[in-house]
Amino acid sequence: MAEHNGVTSCYDQQSASCSERDVGLNFQYEWLVKVCKRPIGNGEYAILNVSPAFSTAYNGIQFTWTLRLNADCLAHDYLSGCSNTVNVFLYYKDGPAQDVSMLDTKITVMDKKGNVVFPNLKIPESEWTLGSGWPAVTTDEEHHLLSVFLNDNVDSLIRIAVNISMPAAVFSPLHYFPQLDNACTRLEDACRKYLCDVEAQPSIVPNLDLLLNSDKPDVFAIHRLVFMDGCVQLKSKMKSYDKKKIYNVFAHMYFTECLMPSVIGFSDFIRVIEGLRFHNVTGLFREAERFICRKLLTCNTDAGTVKKMLLLAERYQMPVLKMMCAGILADHIIEYTDSAKRFDVMTKEMKLIAKQIDLDDAFSDANRNYDLLVESVVEDLKLLAKRMRRVSVSRSSSSTSTKSSRSSSPVPQSPALNICQ
Fold this sequence. Notes:
CATH topology of the domain at 24-171: Apoptosis, Tumor Necrosis Factor Receptor Associated Protein 2, Chain A
Number of helices: 13
Protein name: BTB domain-containing protein
Strand content: 15-25%
Number of strands: 13
CATH class of the domain at 24-171: Mainly Beta
Region (Disordered): 394-421
Organism: Syphacia muris
Largest sheet: 6 strands, antiparallel
Shape: elongated
Helix content: 40-55%
Distance between the termini: 29 Å
Structural class: alpha+beta
CATH superfamily of the domain at 24-171: Apoptosis, Tumor Necrosis Factor Receptor Associated Protein 2, Chain A
């Protein structure tokens, strides 16, 4: 086991700071729509339009939404007897969290020339659940006037803009890993003592001697046995702490102090990922994903490295890393007008990268289809770029707009593996 010499504490300020939590990010999406009535049964027609999906994206993290313009009778499933009242709804379709907090959400309705007719119709809900949708809230008089306007503009073009303000903290990739930002010196010391005890006397771990003395010791089977025994022992000794907290702290420390010292290059890291996945050590596998995300945030990373990490995430099923890398690449692509050509070039580059990753993988499947893997990733990128293209973003504390999906916030140091070259 590695000793604790100069290794970063597990409490490395990876979550958002107070100032970051106070900052809001403002997004605006404008929908040009031809108001249509559609058959709903029994010879009746009602207004129903659904916008293309769009994504509020920053720092590589994306939340996907749709606007819906429809008669209230459809929103409430009242299909018998059509109502002429109409409203605008916003739906949360996809994202890294089941629930997300909103700072502010407003709808503006304009005529086809862009003249504002109904400004700042507020959606008051602050907590949104995946799949949920909420209407713009109006007074009875406003609702009547909005309905009249929309019914009068059937078969005509109008514009609907939505302004979404969200906490900056939800756009930190590290926000979606187990949080380790609370002081826990006693728990950290207990974890380290267990590792030192095992190093001094391996026999305290049941059956560890059998693995150590086998003809071909499986390193990751050994790591799994020690890690799982440590979780059991620490839960028994540290009963005043939450079990999940113990597991998260121990996983972070074990990964940092017992696995990372043996990692020098990228091929070593691939070996760690494959070994942890093969032996189903979920807690340590998540720490590997956290490590890569942190490194991408700290490095001035080139596009080639991000592409490599995206393929790594796709292959080894690392959802946060995949979202982060896809967001960075899509954000870069939409800055150019020749995106189709760039996607073609990217596809060729990523096929070469995928083969190189396979050469570094000791557990490689000779029949693996690289083309299908890359084509699936590129198709996802095309869809994401399309969703991000027409959404503008700015900070609530500044009027300056930004197109960057990378954060300039300082991120703590982690063990040295140079994935950024």
